């Protein structure tokens, strides 16, 4: 028996519609689970959240689940509506094989319970091809095989399985686990939904590119339109409406106005400036080889990392040349800025002069990584070097413009910039944002501090 102090440190969580979902990487979560941090594990996606709102028995089963993992772009978007950012999407079809690889390396044994007759066996064969060292000690279908719970429990216990995967679909699997987990000897029980069907080939997964674009639900809808139309078309709309209501109920009116304005303004701007975006991209490509857009990891609200988008204003080897010219910085402190930076192209100098290089960040605003107004997002290396007082900058969503930008931009030293950003964080409001946006137009036209 483990003592309470023997358990690993709890994982971070994010509130999604009143459900605490894990906010951690795949590996952190697997290590925590297999170290004894959870006995029962479930997943939450938009469909699950919709069912939870209508089925009190399922809702109660979820409340008693030890660990709930975020599954799908809907949960990610719902978290963003309340100003939170999930570290990773831990969808069951990708997460479960990774869990089983680590479990196999530790010598853990697995039992597969669920699916139509023959599906668990077919899934087991495929799993053994993917994870050759995996010890699968038994399978049982979720139809006739689940009709007598006592027989199913006896078979699972007799197999000596350490981990039981239950694939009966939501909400049946969660309620079965909730009802019978005390009778099972296994140390870990997971509700894995359609995982067996995917592994057995009963349902085809979307191509990797579609999954990376977070559009797997569109693929499922195209493959099974009659079965999935209600779930994905009506269901997704209902989920987003519910998530919006929940976000509004837990958010100040200023925050709601700010995010609503960000979405409306960024969409409008994208339509208005699309000819400018295309023209600038063409000019960049004509002057120097390489992509028109520059992508870079920055630190956002509460220290979350995201990829910022800008027009490329430098030669493609700019990062490699930084170390050689760092001592020429015109700004004191940890943030490098040089008025005569040799890495900047001719087009780059022009688009920097009028802040045109920042325009692609309208997409970052639309996606929720940034706001129109807020502290500028720092590089991870810069944030690591921040003094303690500068960390308060991370309490607000970073912005395209802000207090220090309209006060002189790169002419403002690091310490003064921190003071301005901290002042903004402490007094931010929707009216202040509107004032700063108005002042931004004057700052852009003057070009002061832009280099």
UniProtKB/TrEMBL annotation:
Keyword tags: Exopolysaccharide synthesis
Domain Bacterial sugar transferase: 258-445
Keyword Acetylation attached: no
InterPro entries: Bact_transf, WecG_TagA_CpsF
GO annotation terms (biological process): polysaccharide biosynthetic process
Gene Ontology terms, MF aspect: phosphotransferase activity, for other substituted phosphate groups
PANTHER family xrefs: COLANIC BIOSYNTHESIS UDP-GLUCOSE LIPID CARRIER TRANSFERASE, SLL5057 PROTEIN
Family as reported in the entry's similarity comment: Belongs to the bacterial sugar transferase family.
Protein name, as recorded: Bacterial sugar transferase domain-containing protein
Species whose genome carries this gene: Actibacterium pelagium
């Amino acid at each position: 028996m483990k003592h309470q102090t023997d358990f690993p440190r709890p994982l971070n969580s994010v509130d999604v519609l009143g459900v605490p979902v894990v906010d951690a990487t795949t590996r952190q979560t697997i290590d925590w689970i297999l170290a004894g941090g959870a006995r029962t594990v479930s997943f939450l996606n938009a469909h699950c959240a919709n069912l939870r709102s209508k089925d009190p028995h399922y809702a109660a089963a979820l409340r008693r689940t030890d660990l709930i993992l975020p599954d799908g772009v809907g949960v990610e978007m719902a978290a963003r509506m309340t100003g939170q950012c999930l570290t990773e999407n831990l969808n069951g079809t990708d997460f479960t094989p990774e869990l089983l690889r680590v479990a196999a390396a530790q010598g853990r044994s697995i039992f597969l319970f669920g699916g139509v007759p023959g599906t668990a066996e077919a899934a087991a064969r495929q799993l053994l091809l993917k994870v050759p060292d995996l010890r699968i000690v038994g399978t049982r279908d979720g139809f006739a095989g689940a009709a007598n719970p006592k027989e199913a429990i006896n078979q699972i216990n007799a197999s000596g399985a350490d981990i039981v995967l239950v694939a009966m679909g939501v909400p049946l699997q969660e309620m079965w686990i909730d009802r019978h987990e005390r009778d099972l000897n296994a140390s870990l029980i997971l509700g894995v939904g359609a995982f067996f069907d995917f592994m057995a080939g009963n349902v085809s997964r979307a191509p990797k590119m579609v999954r990376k674009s977070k559009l797997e639900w569109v693929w499922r809808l195209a493959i099974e339109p009659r079965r999935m139309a209600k779930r994905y078309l009506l269901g997704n709309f209902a989920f987003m409406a519910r998530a919006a209501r929940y976000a509004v109920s837990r958010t100040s009116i200023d925050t709601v106005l700010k995010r609503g304005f960000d979405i409306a303004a960024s969409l409008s701007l994208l339509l208005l400036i699309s000819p400018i975006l295309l023209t600038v991209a063409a000019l960049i490509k004509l002057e120097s080889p390489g992509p028109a857009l520059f992508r870079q990891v920055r630190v956002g609200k509460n220290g979350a990392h995201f990829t910022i988008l800008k027009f490329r204003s430098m030669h493609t080897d700019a990062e490699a040349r930084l170390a050689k010219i760092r001592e020429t910085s015109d700004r004191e402190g940890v943030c490098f800025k040089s008025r005569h930076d040799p890495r900047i192209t001719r087009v780059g100098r022009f688009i920097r002069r009028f802040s045109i290089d920042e325009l692609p960040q309208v997409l970052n605003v639309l996606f929720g990584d940034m706001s129109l107004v807020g502290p500028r997002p720092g590089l991870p290396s810069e944030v690591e070097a921040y003094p303690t007082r500068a960390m308060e900058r991370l309490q607000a969503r970073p912005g395209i413009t802000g207090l220090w930008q309209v006060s002189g931009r790169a002419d403002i030293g690091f310490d003064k910039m921190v003071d301005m950003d901290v002042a903004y964080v402490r007094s931010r409001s929707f009216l202040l944002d509107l004032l700063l946006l108005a002042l931004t137009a004057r700052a852009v036209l003057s070009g002061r501090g832009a280099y």
